[in-house]
Amino acid sequence: MDEQHPIHPVDVNGINKLSAEMYHTLYSEIYDLSACVLRLTNTIGPRMRIRDARQTFLGIWVRQLLEGRPIEVWGGEQLRDFNDVEDVVDALMLAALRHDLPSEPYNLGSSEVISLVDLARLMIEINGTGELRVMPFPPERKKIDIGDYYSAYDRYRAATGWQPRHALKDHPENSRILCWLPSSLHLNGREADFQEAAGWRPSRFHGFRLHLAVAPMNIPSDMTDPFNFPQQDLLRYHEVLLDAVDRITVSGQVILGEGVRRFEAEFATWLGSGCLPEQVIGVANGTDAVELALRAAGVVPGDRVLLPAHTAYATAAAVLRLEAVPVFVDLEEGRAVLSPAHLRHRLRAAADHGRGGPFRAVIAVHLYGEACDLEALQTICADHGLALIEDCAQSCGTTYRDQAVGTRGDFAAFSFYPTKNLAAFGDGGALVVNRPEAVEPARRSRFYGWDQERQAVQFGVNSRLDELQAWVLLGKLQDLSEQIAKRRQVAAWYRELLAGVDLELPEDGADWRHSYHLHVVRLRDPSRRAEVLREAQRQGVPLALHYALACHQQPYIRQRFGPQDPLPETERRLAEILTLPLHPHLERAHVEAVVRVLRSLLP
Fold first, then answer.
1. Would you state the pLDDT for residue 470?
2. Closest listed residue to residue 309, CA positions, set 282, 271, 283, 336
3. What is the pTM of this model?
4. Were both Cys, which of 45, 303, 581, 583 would link to 227 (CB 3.0–4.6 Å)?
5. Given strand 519-523, what is the order of strands in its sheet?
6. φ, ψ dihedrals at 237, nearest 5°
7. Could you tell me the CA-to-CA distances from 443 to 250, 296, 446 in Å, in that order?
8. How confident is the model at residue 394 (pLDDT cuts 50, 70, 90)?
9. pLDDT for position 318
10. Where is pLDDT greater, at 32 or 382?
11. Which of the given ranges, 25-29, 121-125, 347-351, 393-397, has the highest pLDDT on average?
12. Nearest to 194 by CA among 130, 264, 247
């Protein structure tokens, strides 16, 4: 080999690496295979782990900084350079794309050399605190002290034009030395996330993404269920979960910390329409979000709240927790959302009879990912002095007139239950407050009604989004728009493959776009539903009903409030609906399997 290895190997790992170079070169000569070998030195970068026992000295030093221990440097005059992981990826991709490179080893280096003692001082400067101890090299380790360890990259640069782009000694606030920490560190006297501060971005090569969510865990396919969305989602986002655990383990902050603050801010940005971070309040679950919205709207025991009967029972349960009275409203014809016309009818009928407590609020449930007619509902609420609460538990990603649902009502409630479009690793929710005067009282209400001095100044509960869920949600939020697009693609496959089948399929409206949390179809012949459900189950296709009973048909509602008025459109829909499996990780082949079963059973 005509390029010298930067050091003579002195341990088993080094000998193995040098032997591998020789074998690759030998195979190249014998079999005429291209075998470009890149020698990496001191590689650092985002997502490097520091908690394992087998780690480089740099990881050990970071641990010492995190734990408040002094950095111990043996000797200190040894010189090093550092390859940034993005530069290494770029070099590897160049080598893969260049078929004309001689089959030889090439050194990669950064061309920027620093002594160990200067490196330790730089890390302490970036961290804002720390102590350095220079110690003599232990005699028992002296025999493998490798001294200086850096290399030039002149030959690889001449062959490919590659040049490292990331410098080690940038201004401290832009340094990448610590940008791969699994949590926040103290940066120049303030809390900051080093990954964000370093401005790390994916590789510049088109189609190559360094992203936490791209690689599923290596679990045999016969142990997974492709239709099980929570399982498939966790398989793809397991690194996000591990990252969340790392962050809270290192920070020690498990309740209302940096994760919650950042999620609230970034979710506000994702919602758009001028939504500010303080308007988003992370809470324990979606039901709590509805309840706190009702309380913020001034609902008290005995007040009446209007809501659709066709919704998850959690919506009604939130009303009942306040000892308010649910008044159920029918659906729009051919739609799964509250009917403005029937809402007006309910309000007129109540005024005529003059019975019951005052109406205080309307809950507009954007069911399945469909959007309510928000303009009509806003007009009705304004005419009658009612608060409009958007229940967005199933509609994260739905838009109404190019605006995210949850931003037009007085309040909005989101759920991050594991089946939702934006799914936590357990329960989670958010309350969005669009009345400026109600923001602070609503924020206090999730934490005992405490003010900043931890004095109870109002009614409050214990409903806080915990840090683990916040970090998981923050990681997934980066992909949410892409995941919604994939849901729409699966729905498009169903429309294509089920053309001509005796079903009514969901689709976008004239002024709103579906987010397809659930893909609910209507059978034109409801008498076939039981057979279809039974046979699909037998063939391993998980069809479902959302929902078998409307809220006004629930036994407890009838027991508590007596017989309920009939709701013809709601009751008609309940007899006809069927939910087909849909989530963003389904492949076309999975959809085709569902369609084969349906086509065999329906005309």
1. 96
2. 336
3. 0.67
4. 581
5. 503-504, 519-523, 577-580
6. -115, 25
7. 27, 10, 6
8. very high
9. 97
10. 382
11. 393-397
12. 247
Task: Judge whether residue 102 has pLDDT over 70.
Answer: yes
Instruction: Give yes or no for residue 296 having a pLDDT over 60.
Output: yes
Contacts of 202 (CB under 8 A, 6+ apart): 208, 209, 210, 211
CA distance 524 to 95: 59
Distant-in-sequence, close-in-space partners of 339: CB < 8 Å, separation ≥ 6: 329, 330, 331, 332, 333, 569
- Give the contacts of 261 (CB within 8 A, at least 6 positions apart): 277
How far does Cα 155 stand from its chain's mean position?
43
Structure tokens at 21: 């170079």
Report d(CA 249, CA 245) in Å as an integer.
6
Mean of pLDDT values over 552-567 = 95
Nearest by Cα to 546 from 584, 506, 577, 524: 577
Q: What are phi and psi of 315, to 5 degrees?
A: -60, -45
pLDDT at res. 227? 93
Residue 10 has a pLDDT of 53
What's the pLDDT at 257? 87
Structure tokens at 256: 């209302």
Helix (H) or strand (E) holding 327: strand 325-329
Q: What residue type is 540 in one-letter code?
A: G
Strand partners, 73: 134
Burial class (CB in 10 A: 0-12, 13-18, 19+), 589: exposed
pLDDT of residue 489: 97
pLDDT digits (tens, 9 = 90+) for 35-74: 778 877 777 766 555 554 344 677 777 777 777 788 888 8
Residue 170 scores a pLDDT above 70:
no
What H or E segment, with its residue span, contains residue 597?
helix 588-601
- The identity of residue 170, as a single letter, is D
Residues with Cβ within 8 Å of 573's Cβ and at least 6 positions away in sequence, in order, are 310, 331, 336, 522
User: How far is Cα 130 from Cα 67, in angstroms, rounded to an integer?
Assistant: 10
For every residue of 365-394, DSSP letters joined together read E-GGG----HHHHHHHHHHHT-EEEEE-TT
Rounded distance, CA 512 to CA 484, Å?
Answer: 14
Instruction: Tell me if 17 sits within 8 A of 37, measured CB to CB.
Output: no
Distance between CA atoms of residues 299 and 301, nearest Å: 7
Task: Flag whether pLDDT at 203 surpasses 50.
Answer: no
Give the tokens for residue 399. Answer: 């838009």
Measured CA to CA, the distance from residue 359 to residue 434 in angstroms comes to 20
Q: Which residue has the tokens 């179809």?
A: 521
Is residue 233 within 8 A of residue 417, CB to CB? The reply is: no
Cα–Cα distance, 255 to 253 (Å, whole number)? 6
Neighbours of 219 (CB within 10 A): 11
DSSP string, 184-232: EEEETTEEEEHHHHTT----SSTT----TTSS-----GGGS-TT-HHHH
**Residue 168 phi, psi dihedral angles, 5° rounding:** -75, -40
Query: What end-to-end distance do the CA atoms of the chain give, in Å?
Result: 71
